[in-house]
Amino acid sequence: MTTLVETIEALDQRLAPLHQQASTIGLVPTMGALHRGHAALIEQAKRECSEVVVNIFVNPLQFDRKEDLQRYPRMLESDVDLCRRLGVGLVFAPAVSLMYPDPPTVGISIGRLGNHLCGARRPGHFEGVATVVAKLFNIIRPRCAYFGEKDAQQLAIIRRMVMNLNAPVVVVGVPTLRAADGLALSSRNQHLSPSERQQAPILIQVLREAERLIRSGTTDPALVVRTALELVPPDRGLKVEYLEIVDPRELQPVEVVDDRVLVAGALWVGSTRLIDSVICGPAGTEV
Ligand code: AMP
């Protein structure tokens, strides 16, 4: 049985006995429009925890562009249906006014972890993500929380937040679920027209080319980036926002690729912004 709760009081009522029994609560924070990628997080949480709470909340604090927030897909009913099919106990879908009765004055700062990749292009985005996740940790008090490796910068920032603030939560990263042609599943994919959808896998192809170059011994990050980007066909509908090679923990650009790195990119396909990443290293490094 899946229960949809929309207030903190109702949530507390449901969670109180679970906390009393010291149940292992697993939290899966999402913005809804659930797809098989989210399902992978939920299924892993189900395997590892006795109770799973899925949060569905389109968090205004993490949107740097108003039109992106407005057109973000919302489909609570079918999301709850999917949660039901996956055997989720609780779906917490609060209203914006509940999460932010007033614009928050105090939040989480993320320092240099936001200086590159998406953080450099989306001012305030990761502060907004970290702040809402901290709120959810306090509201739900989960033992474990599940995040996708697709959003690699987000995952690194949440891990650091938990470490730096001693949050009593185990952060679990879940591998990216992809379509057969490699495109990472994303709620934003539904904005793609059929021809854009055909072009979209170019992002993972570029990342895999970068990975191949690195594995075969290219150590100059600029050369890796330049060569991999040659795969992007000249097309007015395709715009690479960034392709960067950083160290996976500090998220700072590397001068030489001689260890594990995170290769991450953002690609505009028409008016849809897609992100993806891979972790790789020269032959012989553990990834
Ligand atoms: P979102 O609803 O896009 O904020 O995503 C909620 C969570 O699902 C985040 O931790 C994402 O990293 C994760 N996620 C989204 N897409 C995928 C995917 N294709 N594979 C695995 N995890 C994903």
Give a structural overview:
The protein is an alpha/beta fold and 287 residues long. The protein is 38% helix and 19% strand. The strands form 2 sheets. The chain has a 6-stranded parallel β-sheet, sandwiched between helices. The longest helix has 16 residues, at 125-140. The chain binds adenosine monophosphate. Residues 30-31, 37-38, 40-41, 147-148, 150-151, 174, 176-177, 184-187 line the site of adenosine monophosphate.
Topology:
Blueprint: E1 3-5, H1 8-20, E2 25-30, H2 36-48, E3 51-56, H3 66-71, H4 76-85, E4 90-92, H5 96-99, H6 117-121, H7 125-140, E5 144-148, H8 152-164, E6 170-174, H9 194-199, H10 202-215, H11 221-229, E7 238-246, E8 261-269, E9 272-280
Parallel strand pairs: 1-4, 2-3, 2-5, 3-4, 5-6
Antiparallel strand pairs: 7-8, 8-9
Helix pairs in contact: 7-8, 10-11
The protein binds adenosine monophosphate.
Beta-strand segment tally:
9
Give the overall form.
Answer: globular
Q: What's the alpha carbon Rg, rounded to whole Å?
A: 19 Å
Which strand-content bin applies to the residues?
Answer: 15-25%
Number of helical segments with 4 or more residues: 11
Distance between the termini: 39 Å
The residue-averaged pLDDT reads: 97
The percent of residues in helical segments reads 25-40%
Largest sheet: 6 strands, parallel
As residue ranges, the low-confidence spans are: none
Strand arrangement across the biggest beta sheet: 1-4-3-2-5-6
The computed structural class is alpha/beta
Order of helices and strands: EHEHEHHEHHHEHEHHHEEE
> Which molecules are bound in this entry?
adenosine monophosphate
